[in-house]
């Protein structure tokens, strides 16, 4: 209650000034996208939050698109904001990042991420660091270096599974271990697990907004961030010393130390810390939701099992997946795309207009926020037939991706395209391989999807797992057939 009250106060302060200006002058000169600004001060924030706490993925946007069309104005989180649910407009927004629009994050987020993180960088430094990050997760690196770690670390966590597990927690362990390995070549152990515990607190801080100053979660997150940063800077110092003594390692940290920018320890720590944040919740959530959707679609699960049993049948039980195996999982790739499309872990991105922008007959005034909604496009029947159901077969013959333009953008686009897009796909595919070949499972409780503050299931998806003896199953299958 106190938080809500404080939040309302904040909205009041932020928006009072705006309402006066907006009502008095701008609206007369500019043709704003249609829409309602809701109550003074709070705008439509409460409606937005209430809508995303239901199981229906898009009630807030659906209602407004029906009333105003694909581009509309609302007022959320203390500011007037133009929502776009139109692929062409989304493309325009993403492609003009850094020119007509800029990324926009509240101060509470940059305190947690650190000012030298990729998401907060701009201009030529951003360009250079984005491409460095891209090259660390590109398909060559995954094929030659990361895949074997991914395979090993997925197995490592799964080895400990017995009976009832919280799938989301397990997926988080896997993702965290993988990212730490990729960034600084550390294998999982006590150190990574204690680091991860602090990390969890940092991440909770991101969702304690709207009102950081009054939020104990936020204060705890800032403390945890300091601890994480200390742990990481110890690693950076040690590695720098080794680097100066001539040791080279082929990981992200190695590349940052070797770069021509002479980054300080603080810069490197910020950069690494933010990379860990970016991959952690997203990838573990997509793993969990893929399993949930498959469980609810038995035909798809059966077909996926068949594909992976076929791959495993050609290998011994302990043999790692090869790049060629990854490249021969056509149905899995349909499942991956369909999960990304339906789950919409990142439902869209906020930008701020750096100048008056004229688009589709409307004007977005300089300084206004825009939200390019990916989810609204992904769930639009115009772009995907029967868009709100999970149907991996729609991607067969590549018909799902056939539509041109910015219709399928789970990883964003333009200069801020997610540098982890390939890595996330490979991680999910390898995870699914071991999940379906090594286990069968049943959910132990009903677990609903919610969309606020992030897309996730309410109960972290508890399941009861049972080991499959796939090798004797494959043998008996071949026997039956002969
Ligand atoms: C299913 C998993 C993932 C999804 C859906 C996802 C989605 C996205 C999206 C939509 C953006 C664009 C944000 C914007 O334009 O403002 C983004 C940016 C980013 N992602 Fe991912 N991501 C995923 C996994 C990962 C992984 C595994 C990593 C780590 C290696 C990662 C690192 C980043 C970074 C560093 C950025 C910021 C790029 C920049 O601002 O230049 N992501 N991600
Ligand atoms: C991936 O990045 C490396 C440099 O780290 C580069 O040599 C290679 O050509 C890149 N591969 C692709 C497919 O872009
Ligand atoms: C980084 O350091 C090297 C040698 O110490 C120097 O030659 C170079 O100019 C520095 N680069 C930048 C961008 O400061
Ligand atoms: C894909 O192509 C196959 C064979 O050409 C066809 O049987 C199948 O129905 C197609 N699937 C979709 C979703 O169009
Ligand atoms: C999945 O989506 C990507 C675009 O993000 C596309 O390139 C790829 O062909 C799609 N895969 C399938 C199987 O349709």
From TrEMBL:
Where in or outside the cell it occurs: the entry states: Membrane
Kindly give the InterPro entries that the UniProt entry links to this protein.
Cyt_P450, Cyt_P450_CS, Cyt_P450_E_grp-I, Cyt_P450_sf
**Top-level division of the source organism's lineage:** Eukaryota
Keyword terms of this UniProt record:
Heme, Iron, Membrane, Metal-binding, Monooxygenase, Oxidoreductase, Transmembrane, Transmembrane helix
Membrane-related topology note = Single-pass membrane protein
Q: Name one GO cellular component term.
A: membrane
Task: Indicate which residues the UniProt annotation says bind heme.
Answer: 418
- Name the pathway it acts in: Steroid biosynthesis; Plant hormone biosynthesis; brassinosteroid biosynthesis; Hormone biosynthesis
**Signal peptide positions on this chain:** none
The prosthetic group or cofactor this protein requires is: heme
Q: Which GO terms describe its biological process?
A: brassinosteroid biosynthetic process; brassinosteroid homeostasis; sterol metabolic process
A Gene Ontology molecular-function term? iron ion binding
Q: Which Gene3D superfamilies match?
A: Cytochrome P450 (1.10.630.10)
Q: Which family does it belong to?
A: Belongs to the cytochrome P450 family.
Query: Can you name this protein?
Result: Cytochrome P450
Source organism per entry reads Rubroshorea leprosula
Taxonomic lineage is:
Eukaryota, Viridiplantae, Streptophyta, Embryophyta, Tracheophyta
